[in-house]
Amino acid sequence: MTTDIGKFKHDSPMSGTLRMERMPHIWCPGCGIGSEVNAFAEAIKRSGIDPKKLVVVSGIGCTGRVAGYVDFDSIHTTHGRAIPVATGIKLANPELTVVVFSGEGDLTGIGGNHLIHAARRNMDLVVICNNNFTYGMTGGQVTPTTPHSAIASTTPYGNYEYPFSLPFLVDAAGATYIARWTSMDVRNVTQSIEEALAHKGFSFIEIISPCTTLYLRRNRLGDGVDMLQHYQENTVLKHGCDTRETAIDFQGKIVIGKFVDKVKPTYLEAVDQCCVKLVGDDYQLYGKTIPEREAEEKAEKEKVAARRAAVLAEQTEANE
Amino acid sequence: MFFNNLKQLHGKVYINETWCKGCGFCVQFCPTNVLDISSDYNAKGYHPPYAKNPEKCHDCQYCQIICPEFSIFVTRDDENERGVTEK
User: Fold this and answer.
1) Which band of pLDDT confidence, cut at 50, 70 and 90, is reported for residue B87?
2) pTM of the predicted model as reported, rounded to 2 decimal places
3) Of residues A208, A295, A222, A294, the one with CA closest to residue A254
4) Which domains does chain A have, with CATH numbers?
């Protein structure tokens, strides 16, 4: 039983998007983050985005390690501050596509304030939130999304707090693209990330994933396969569902799907509108007039569409 | 079952036993039960999967995308590349 690892790394379809020299990774057996990273890499490949114009930002935690494993420009920030750093990157260079890949403890617990304000401003970010109901790296403490009555290391007799429903939270704060999937639905996650990358405005994708070592073990829910089977049986697909109905009960039904997809001026567009009103047509942002920027954006969009079409054509040709 | 004269595609599974942590996702969720958990151990002490029914693989690549260790990939079988039509 031996595998030629060098050959495997070279042949693997993930080798262009993931840093294969850093594998094997630190995630536990049965953890869903690896599947999500796979889906993310696949989505990047299919979306036709220029990898040189993509930045992946992560916070701290198990999911925070994603930034170290993807082969794009990436930054591993301090705890909870992934979104402020991403906002800064986006404002410094609006041409970049900025993806925040972090956990729910990082994004909604430590950095909850940043999440709601980025959603309120409609910053042009893609936020992928891995929700495993626990702080995995620090020993299984209770997070803002741990379901009521679930056991965590800080609530050994059951959680008495009431959890966040993340789609409802970001919808109320003003996000323009909201979806929720489980780590079982990797194909849908791929499609959703692809849509979010093309979407202009704050896109939030929540991915529910099992934490075998802490959440599942403390709650006696079996291992990763058991939890994925639970997801298979207990998820309800409801596209366009009212986000008020998306709360998660302990081992209850999970509503998945694309809940919100709307168009609203982004933060940069709102800045432009306000300043054009004040200064007039001479107003320049980052040394470019608005028609110049629009032309550039259009050219970039056409390039992306061409690359995407090439990928799709390759696939259909292979399928014929 | 064939649609018109199209034959089903075939794939070949490549497994990297060294990285495998034995989570069993690929074995459990393979739609055609190609994979099974082997009785051998790898260096970490996990049971990696092996292709039990390799001829059943239809190149859906679900094991490739769900593998959290990035240690499976599927390529289309050369013999049936482009889905040879039935004569």
Assistant:
1) very low
2) 0.90
3) A208
4) 5-265 (3.40.50.970), 268-319 (no CATH)
